[in-house]
Write a structure and sequence with these properties.
Elements: H1 7-13, E1 15-22, H2 26-34, H3 36-39, E2 49-55, E3 62-68, E4 74-85, E5 89-96, E6 107-116, E7 119-127, H4 132-155
Antiparallel strand pairs: 1-7, 2-3, 3-4, 4-5, 5-6, 6-7
Length: 158
């Protein structure tokens, strides 16, 4: 008799996938993810402020960001760019910095940008989380960030 396993279900519980449609050209959505002055306008959950962002957009290049909470707490994260297919796909590692500024547990973020009826369909995937609760916290934060991204994109043009 074959053994049953819920391993695929458990793995899926620790992955986050968000798909958003933006009423903006793909090149503009790409730039909103990769150009410092644009990222600084939207990165971070609702009521958070982007304080810094740098990205070397070459495979092997480093990136980091820092944001401030409404209470004044700073949160920083960093990673390494793994893949760049402009303006279609961006892949990078992601880790929160601890109190000493050292990166913690690493995850992988993959973002694809597809043309869709004159706009852009963005698919954001992040994995592997330590728990479903951790994933849910990131889902809330990223969705709030993507709401800000949509507002930013609606306010500008190429």
């Amino acid at each position: 008799m074959a053994e049953r396993s819920d391993a695929p279900t458990k793995a899926a519980e620790r992955e986050l996938v968000i798909t958003r449609l933006f009423d903006a050209q793909r090149e503009l959505v790409w730039k909103a993810w990769t150009e410092r002055e644009r990222v600084m306008r939207w990165l971070g959950p609702k009521e958070f402020t982007a304080l810094d962002f740098e990205m070397d957009r070459r495979p092997g290049g480093a990136w980091h960001s820092r944001m401030g909470s409404p209470e004044g707490t700073e949160h920083s994260n960093r990673g390494v760019v793994r893949e760049v297919v402009e303006p279609e796909r961006l892949v990078f590692t992601f880790a929160w910095d601890d109190e000493d500024g050292k990166p913690g547990r690493e995850m992988l973020i993959t973002i694809t940008f597809a043309e869709h009826d004159g706009g852009t369909e963005m698919t954001f995937a992040q994995a592997v989380f330590e728990s479903a609760e951790d994933r849910d916290g990131h889902q809330e934060g990223w969705n709030e960030s993507f709401d800000k991204l949509a507002e930013y994109l609606a306010s500008i043009h190429l």
